[in-house]
Amino acid sequence: MPWITTAPTSAVKSDVESVLNKVRPQVIIHTASPIAMASNNSALYYAVNVDGTRNLLECARDLKTVNAFVYTSSASVAPRHRQQPRER
Description:
This protein is mostly helical. It has one domain. The chain is 38% helix and 9% strand. It contains two helices and two strands; from the N terminus they run αβαβ. It has helices at residues 13-23, 42-63, and strands at residues 27-30, 68-71. Strand 1 (27-30), helix 2 and strand 2 form a beta-alpha-beta unit. The relative contact order is 0.23.
């Protein structure tokens, strides 16, 4: 089973497309982001968890072989805010 171990952000979307086109999976298990990230970088959290997930979903949709997409994440990947984060 092939694994993509880098975050599927826009910088590597073509890599995600390439792997999915080779493998043509029926199921994708996406774990979103590591539980502990080295910095409190909200732009990185957003890039991995929002942009990366969107890219992977778009690639899976375009491939048309994916029957199931399993997404898991954790609240511990997001920094604590007094206010709700805003979408970009």
